[in-house]
Amino acid sequence: MTTRLTALGRHRALDRIWGTPKGWRGTLQSVNHSDIGKRFILASFFFFAVGGVLAMLIRAQLATPNSAFVGPDIYNQLFTMHGSIMMFLFAIPMFEGLALYLLPKMLGSRDMAFPRLSAYGWWCYLFGGTILLVALALGVAPDGGWFMYPPLSSKPFTPGINSDVWLLGITFVEISAVAAAVEIVVSILKLRAPGMRLDRMPLFAWYLLVTALMMVAGFPPLILGSILLEAERAFDWPFFDPVRGGDPLLWQHLFWLFGHPEVYIIFLPAAGVVSTVLPVMARTQILGYGAIVAAILALGFLSFGLWVHHMFTTGIPHMALGFFSAASALVAIPTGVQIFAWIGTLWGGRPDVRLPMLYLLGFFVVFVLGGLTGVMLAVVPFDWQAHDSYFVVAHLHYVLVGGFIFPMLAGAYYWLPHFTGRARVLRLGEAAFWLIFIGFNLAFFLMHLTGLLGMPRRVYTYPDGIGWTWLNLLSSVGSFVMAFGFALFAIDVALQIFLARRAPRNPWGANTLEWAMATPAPAYNIASQPHVKSREPLVDDSELPVRLARGEGYLATPRNNWRETMAVDMVTGRTDFVAVVPGNTSLPIITAAVTGLFFLSLLFGFYWLALAPLAGVVLLGWRWAWTLGSHEDLGPLDAGRGEALPAHWEAREAPGWVGSLFLLGADATLGASLLFGYAFLWTIAPNWPPPELVAGGWPEASAALLGVALATLAAGRTTVAVLGGKLDKAKRMLLLAGTAQAVVIVALASLVLRHLPDPTIHAYGAACATLVAYAVLHAAIALMMALFVSRRIAAGYVSPARTLEPRVATLFTAFAGAATGLVLLALMLPVMLA
Amino acid sequence: MLGGSALISTLVAVLIVVAFVKRDSETRVSPKLWIGGFGLGFTSAVLMALLAYALVLGESTLPTPRDGTVAVAAEGRQWDWRFRQPGVSGEIATEGVLNIPVGVPVDVHITTQDVIHSFWVPQLAGKMDAIPGKTNVLRIEASLPGTYEGRCAEFCGIGHAGNVFRVVAHDADGWAAFQRSEPR
């Protein structure tokens, strides 16, 4: 390092680079992970309050028989929005916020891999959530249940805008979720403190890694389902209409293919909190780190194999039900492993009932009961009876409140000193716990009985004199007691934020790296990054926080006004390169706003107008990518501790590369779900495809196939040329690739217009048109990428050392080629068989 | 199932309480016992037993073809149920009331005219969905004559709460009388 900085000088220098400007500019432009994380947490808590108020209205209505408090039209909106808000606007964003805030700190890093993407995700979430809230305020909120089963949610039975609000608003929010998932995966795999091997990561990071991977694979089926249902509503493409070759069960498969993993996507981060907080409360280490990691991986894997247990009553053959019943029971084993690992940890330590531990005890009681009723429901004959009754309402609240809310409350009290730098004043947290715990059990334990007495879900009222009256009244009382508990919690947190005295650093005596920094954390987290030698860096070296502040770690001296953080080999944690992440910018909020305009145009049915914001998103995306990179090869840079490493644009495994891989993973799941839908309808629906609709199209199909082959070849040659320093040849190859993609687009368009059937007369035509749209979209993006890389070469951003952009373009072109090939195979198969 | 659940909950609760109460610090905990024994062994054993029981029970409730069953057609719509079945002098159609004989397995062939509904008579059997474009079969059987409340169990719109019907189980005489009723 050229100059020696004092700790204070280093703080000032880093703070100038990483800090968020005061006032509105900072609010709109900040991409800092702590800012964005806190916003996600606060906003999702606000949505939790909204969802809670809806729940209280529901309970007010059901408190007495034949109540006239709200009618069925309002009631249907209430329970639909309660479920949708709690799932999509509370649970997912809450843990995303916690992950954004905590992950870099726990991993000894300074930021997430794609800060602008976090900010974009935040604004998408805010705008999408606002659309749903406005619809609720105007009384046109979705009213078809959070599961939106067609044909009830289709145009003939829900002619209003209600279903569109759900399909478009939720999809908008899901963009944010997929963006966050890719970012979480890349940040965990690449941006850790040097020396932190995978098996030295805090368990919390393992939980989030698996959760994020599940989101990458689990959200695309729902996004696809929403696109198909919206296409049916908007353009009369009959995917779910059995009269025209569709099947309403296709929606249920796509929905639950997402919906069941979703439950574990919500549970796993909360379990991560348990695995983090519980050992600290017991003053020991977690028992069975390896077994827990194995259990998390098993859970993530198994959770994709049991979606059909939401469909036990749809008339699926009993053999198949047996398989999914077994899988549903099997998934309880890794959960059991974790539960007993936690209890074993308590046995091995000296646990104290401090406030976070109190909430964890609540978690144990509630979650174990929810798990047991879950196993009961996995039993098919029992499910036939309890399905869609209040027994299931009780079960799912025990699982979700037990498996998410209680751990999150424990986490809230555990990490509040980290957020605020303050200690608690009053002992409101204990009172809040008892109100929530007693209120919850009063409200929901009784619902098991109500359900067994035959009360179905989603009825806005019920008659007197059939034994449901007093149970419902007590449930309502319990729910209000619980609501008071949450209000008390909110007051307690507010007091701690605004009034309490300063807390000492690391008040719990924890051993993970988020406690190795000042609290509240500075924008850059840590003044220099540690070299991690074990799972407990703060036990190895209790002086670590001071030494990091003195600059004895990596990247202690800021340079070039860059936001720098270390990147490591994914598995071994050896130093790999220096990642330079982008700073504050208005691009995320502008892009999110334009994305929002796109969804609003669709919502109000201005389909042609929607093309304008779409073009805007393309331009902004171009701008987004253009601002990165470097004009010159810098070679190895001083990274501190005697190491010299390249900047990320000169590295093979740059975050952009790894991110592209996982984004394509999500894309592949979307494409696979589409092919699944096509194959599903083909095998299930009768007379599919109708022979009279199957036409030729070989010339177009051949031209398209030739086009993607040529484009893939040319893109491959581009990277080779760049590596060999032949930039002019690379540009020629890109021109060839781009032209070939244009040919693909024209050929596919001609295939649709001249040969494929009208998408409105039969689901076969609709499915074909969707497949072609998928291929055309990919060809268009690949074309833009070829153009982009060509311009970047001309502007001097590419060299044999700086190959990231050509490599990403090549990768995407190859993916698009494979996808188009599969689409063509699916399209031409009926022609071949005819 | 209920008893087993109560037992398991108690076990877990006791294990947790003991962890807090015992004050001999530094217990040697064996990962083998906690993760292998409790986590894997205990959980798997309970689940396998339950699963085997469930499959056998599930198989026995299936509408497998056999002699002496009665077939009826049930059609759901927004927001009532209509039933059709063969009578002595032709098909008998009823609205809101399903007539069945006592002590005889009845196969209900369930369809829908519009959205998804679900046929549920809690006292007689589990539920089965009515799905557009499909016919699902549910076997029900009443052991005592009388009237049973039935209802739609799948959310089907504004009128879902009022989408109810009755099942009347007749003794032999009543059943014979019903079958002689005029076709409608």
UniProtKB/TrEMBL annotation, chain A:
<dbReference type="InterPro" id="IPR014241">
    <property type="entry name" value="Cyt_c_oxidase_su1_bac"/>
</dbReference>
<keyword id="KW-0813">Transport</keyword>
<dbReference type="InterPro" id="IPR023616">
    <property type="entry name" value="Cyt_c_oxase-like_su1_dom"/>
</dbReference>
<dbReference type="InterPro" id="IPR035973">
    <property type="entry name" value="Cyt_c_oxidase_su3-like_sf"/>
</dbReference>
<keyword id="KW-1133">Transmembrane helix</keyword>
<feature type="transmembrane region" description="Helical">
    <location>
        <begin position="734"/>
        <end position="752"/>
    </location>
</feature>
<feature type="transmembrane region" description="Helical">
    <location>
        <begin position="577"/>
        <end position="600"/>
    </location>
</feature>
<feature type="transmembrane region" description="Helical">
    <location>
        <begin position="392"/>
        <end position="416"/>
    </location>
</feature>
<comment type="similarity">
    <text>Belongs to the heme-copper respiratory oxidase family.</text>
</comment>
<keyword id="KW-0408">Iron</keyword>
<feature type="transmembrane region" description="Helical">
    <location>
        <begin position="78"/>
        <end position="102"/>
    </location>
</feature>
<dbReference type="InterPro" id="IPR013833">
    <property type="entry name" value="Cyt_c_oxidase_su3_a-hlx"/>
</dbReference>
<feature type="transmembrane region" description="Helical">
    <location>
        <begin position="661"/>
        <end position="681"/>
    </location>
</feature>
<keyword id="KW-0679">Respiratory chain</keyword>
<comment type="pathway">
    <text>Energy metabolism; oxidative phosphorylation.</text>
</comment>
<keyword id="KW-0249">Electron transport</keyword>
<keyword id="KW-0812">Transmembrane</keyword>
<feature type="transmembrane region" description="Helical">
    <location>
        <begin position="203"/>
        <end position="229"/>
    </location>
</feature>
<feature type="transmembrane region" description="Helical">
    <location>
        <begin position="165"/>
        <end position="191"/>
    </location>
</feature>
<feature type="transmembrane region" description="Helical">
    <location>
        <begin position="358"/>
        <end position="380"/>
    </location>
</feature>
<dbReference type="InterPro" id="IPR023615">
    <property type="entry name" value="Cyt_c_Oxase_su1_BS"/>
</dbReference>
<feature type="transmembrane region" description="Helical">
    <location>
        <begin position="40"/>
        <end position="58"/>
    </location>
</feature>
<keyword id="KW-1278">Translocase</keyword>
<dbReference type="InterPro" id="IPR000883">
    <property type="entry name" value="Cyt_C_Oxase_1"/>
</dbReference>
<feature type="transmembrane region" description="Helical">
    <location>
        <begin position="606"/>
        <end position="626"/>
    </location>
</feature>
<dbReference type="Pfam" id="PF00115">
    <property type="entry name" value="COX1"/>
</dbReference>
<feature type="transmembrane region" description="Helical">
    <location>
        <begin position="428"/>
        <end position="450"/>
    </location>
</feature>
<feature type="transmembrane region" description="Helical">
    <location>
        <begin position="320"/>
        <end position="346"/>
    </location>
</feature>
<feature type="transmembrane region" description="Helical">
    <location>
        <begin position="286"/>
        <end position="308"/>
    </location>
</feature>
<protein>
    <recommendedName>
        <fullName>cytochrome-c oxidase</fullName>
        <ecNumber>7.1.1.9</ecNumber>
    </recommendedName>
</protein>
<keyword id="KW-0472">Membrane</keyword>
<keyword id="KW-1003">Cell membrane</keyword>
<feature type="transmembrane region" description="Helical">
    <location>
        <begin position="470"/>
        <end position="495"/>
    </location>
</feature>
<feature type="transmembrane region" description="Helical">
    <location>
        <begin position="122"/>
        <end position="141"/>
    </location>
</feature>
<keyword id="KW-0349">Heme</keyword>
<feature type="transmembrane region" description="Helical">
    <location>
        <begin position="764"/>
        <end position="789"/>
    </location>
</feature>
<feature type="transmembrane region" description="Helical">
    <location>
        <begin position="249"/>
        <end position="274"/>
    </location>
</feature>
<keyword id="KW-0479">Metal-binding</keyword>
<dbReference type="InterPro" id="IPR036927">
    <property type="entry name" value="Cyt_c_oxase-like_su1_sf"/>
</dbReference>
<keyword id="KW-0186">Copper</keyword>
<feature type="domain" description="Cytochrome oxidase subunit I profile">
    <location>
        <begin position="12"/>
        <end position="533"/>
    </location>
</feature>
<feature type="transmembrane region" description="Helical">
    <location>
        <begin position="701"/>
        <end position="722"/>
    </location>
</feature>
